Every structure is written in C-alpha cells, then in structure tokens.
Amino acid sequence: MHSFLFKRKNEAAQGACRLVGSGENILVWEDPWVLELPLFRPQPRNAHEPRQCLAVAQLMNHDRTDWNIGLVKQLFNEDSVRAILNIPKWFSGNEDKWIWLHSSNGVLTAKSAFKQIAKEAYDIPINQSLGRIWKTRIHDRLKMHLWRLAADLLPTKDTLTRFVSSLDPICVLCDQECEDAVHLFWDCPMARALWFGCRWSIRTDQFPITNATQLVIMLMSPPNEWGIKSEDKEGFILIGSLILDQIWKCRNLKVHEGCNASMEHLERRIAVLGSEYHLANSITLCPPSTVKKTCWQKPPINCLKINCDAAVGNSYSSVAIVARDWRGTVVLAVSQKVNTTIPLQAEAEAIAWASRIAANLGVDQICIESDSKTCMDHIRGKLTMLLMSLLGGHSEIDFGVLLI
C-alpha cells in the first residue's frame, strides 16, 4: 500500500492544507492555506505582475490579531480576498501546521489516503460494511481471504484468462461452468452443498448474486430470510468464512496437485476447525492481565528441555523437536511428517513424539514445552499417567506451555 501511495502522492497532496497559526512558516503563493479556494491557493489581483516572496504573517497587522485588509485587497482578487477574510480567528502564538481534510481529526493515515485516492482517481466504490471484516473475531488469515474475495483479488480462472488466453476457463470442481468467484463460492454444486449442509441450511439458488462483494456483504450482514439470530451471527461469520476458505483450498488442491477432496472430508474439516476456534476462544476470553506471556528459558542444571511444535499443510503436517541442556546448548534437532491436517492433532503428535524421544535419551529430569495450551492442559490432567507410563522410569517430568 505504501508504494501505491507514493506513486499517487500528488493526488494525496490535494487533500492537505496549512492551518494558519503564526503565519511565519506558510508561503503565500506556494503553500495551500485558503480552504475555500481551488487547490487552497489564493490568486493575485493582477496576474501579470511579478509575485513577491511573502509569508502569511506579513499579511497580518502589527499585533498579529487580524489581517491587514488594505494589503490583502491590494494583492489578491475578490474571491481570494473574501476567502482569506473568512479564515477563522487564530492565536498568534500557535504554530502553523498541516491538516488532512479527508479525516475527521485532520490526521493523515495510509488508510484515509488510500480510500480518498481510490474514490477520486479510480472511482472504486468503498463499501463501509466491508470494514466489518477487520472487526470480526476470526483468524487474520480468514479476514484477509474475505477481503481479497470482496476486492476481486483472488486469481480465479476468469481473471487469469485475461492474461493467458489459452487457459481452460471451466471450473475444476464441477467441470460444467466457467470459473469466477460467484460460481466457485456460491453457484458451484460443491459450494451449494456446503452452504446447505451448514446448520442454517442456506439455499444459494434462492439468493442470486452478481459479484463477490455481495457475497461478503451477505456474510457480514445476513438477510433476515436466513433466520440467523443476533447471538448466532458471530458463529455464522466464522462458519461462512471457513466454507469459503475450504472451497478455495479444495480448488487449489485440484488445480495444482490433481487431488480431489470428498464432501464428507470438507464438512468434517469445517466442523473441526469451527470447534477448535470455539475451544481456543473460550480459553483466551480471560482478562488480558491474567495471561502471562513468557519467553524461552534455560532448564535447571542436569535437566533437559524439549521444545516441540507443528506446522499444518494441505495434505500433511510437519512436527519438529529441539532439545537443549541446562547451558542452552542444542543437543538434538529432528523433524518428520505426520498424516494429519488437523492443527490440534498435529500439536498432540509433536508432544507424543517428544515424549517417546525423551524415553530413549536416558535423562532423569525432563521438561517438555509446547505452545499448544489446549494440549498441555489435557496432559496435566487426564493424560499425565498415560505419558508417565510411556516415559518408563523417569521420576521427574514437567509439561509446560510457552505463550509467545
């Protein structure tokens, strides 16, 4: 966005104006400082006369409490004189400053500049309801996917064929219609089945849409006909976002790897991700002051600390183990693939593998650390005895969670 704003800086500058204070740092002819005039600049009374280099302070009377009306009328045309005299009274001790006219507080931000340039230079309609995307309580990756969909930035086939005319435009999920965002996420048989299969049983054929922005707006503000209660809207946005996300992943898996995903797998995946979100959300709803953020620390003398983590992919996950001694020296670092794409299960696989490795190292004191609080809470409870039996004769073991 910053490179975009830099390229359009001249257009952004049209919304900036100087606010008169002392007037000492504002040049009469060069700077924008008269709000009621085009480009905020005054025009001379005689366009053919040479213009003197003047500061606005020189147009004021001796005590700087008002304009030198005679001098103002001598220098500027009638429209400029009228606009200058309409400038509100100022305090001479105030500093001259810049203000941005397209924000309520006069402060220029990248967001306000982008909106103004998009509105004026590109005639892009800015739908205020789309701003709700960034306020929803869903994962940031899902927010970005919704925004890209609403802004028509996803590389669907109808977009790609503008650049690659030889590309097959047919939807890979149904092999029936040309692939665009509306078809892929709303009209495709797979999309219709997923929307109808959710708890609200949405019939997409009864709500025709013409562009992807409409779809995202309906997700943010569902029609009354869908019968979604106010207390369920947050859950609906979550499930709807997951449906759109899984459709896109399924499409990409088919395009790039030639793999098909069954409807049962997609429905189960959406249900699992939704449940994981609610579980994680219920844990993080505690007041911020009660959440203690920690950083990695060396284990005690003669103790081995094992850190484990997981990364989830489209068809499998990767887990990694790093073991360090009491000096902080790495003594072991290994990784492997696991056959799951469920984040919570992948974290559990990493912890279980760390436990098996610990059993084979022959160390008396062990600390296993993970960033999955959900797994660690269960291990400290119901699963502790099971893992202790896996670790054999080790008498001291600690399971910790690292919040970063």
Automatic annotation (TrEMBL):
CDD domains linked to this entry: RNase_H_like (cd06222)
Superkingdom: Eukaryota
Residue ranges the record marks as coiled coil: none
Pfam families: RVT_3, zf-RVT
Domain Reverse transcriptase zinc-binding residues, every copy: 110-195
Domain RNase H type-1: 307-382
InterPro entries listed in its UniProt record: RNase_H-like, RNase_H-like_dom_plant, RNaseH-like_sf, RNaseH_domain, RNaseH_sf, RVT-Znf
Gene Ontology molecular function, alphabetical: nucleic acid binding; RNA-DNA hybrid ribonuclease activity
PANTHER family hit by this protein: OS05G0353850 PROTEIN (PTHR47723), POLYNUCLEOTIDYL TRANSFERASE, RIBONUCLEASE H-LIKE SUPERFAMILY PROTEIN (PTHR47723:SF19)
Protein name listed in UniProt: RNase H type-1 domain-containing protein
Organism: Fagus sylvatica (Beechnut)
